[in-house]
Amino acid sequence: MEKLQLPPKPEKSLFKKIRAIIITILVIALYVWTFKNIDIDWGRAIERSIDNFHRVIPKLFSPDWAAAGKVGLAMLETVFIAFAGSLMAAILAIPLSFLAAKNMMGGKAVSTVGKWILSAIRAFPDLILAILFVVAVGPNAFAGVLAIAIGSTGMLGKMFSEIIESIDMEVVQAMEANGANKIQILFYGVLPQITPEFLSYAIYRFEVDIRASSILGIVGAGGIGTMIIFASSNRNWNEMGMILLAIVIVVTIIDFASAKIRRKIV
Prior knowledge:
Elements: H1 14-37, H2 42-60, H3 68-100, H4 108-122, H5 126-137, H6 141-165, H7 169-177, H8 182-216, H9 225-233, H10 237-265
Main location: other
Keywords: Membrane, Transmembrane, Transmembrane helix, Transport
Subcellular location: Cell envelope; Cell membrane; Membrane
């Protein structure tokens, strides 16, 4: 039997080769310029890094078990902040996602406005939102909940709108042809198609928010981040090791649990 010969790979044009070389040179030049203009004493930085490695790392791997109780309570508060913020975000994202979906609002102008709103919300990092809400409502867990809620609304709204735009519109058109009103179309034609993916993305966002809420306490927005600040300020690396261990355990458990739930939903 004759062996099947694969067609030869198309050769890159001279223009593409030159373009690739120029881009590579520019990227290398940018890195060289960046490191050259950063005012860093590399010898001192390396020396301090080695010193910190020998002094701090062993303590991080020797967690202070006496602090397990208060670390557990702070981690529980962090989970509550993430859950409350994710739930608020999922609720707020639903109307915004319908506003941003091209196939729902009947006009490109309206959907463009919806997309702009979601883009504006996504422009603010969680830490910036946390700082703003700490100023507005005080240094407490509620500021963290609001920061997570607003920060996650932009991302969930974008994901939800893409899900809505990908639904089978023939179902909607068939219901319209049979005289169904807007409410009936929404509950029997649209929601059954989008609900599983909405739930899947909301659960996934909760995973992300667990990690985000772990650091919001750094700016006074509650959770275990507050303990991180105090432990690092006091150079209490054994307690820091306990905090990191708690974060790793909780995040791992939630990742496995949410992955199983999402597999059953979708």
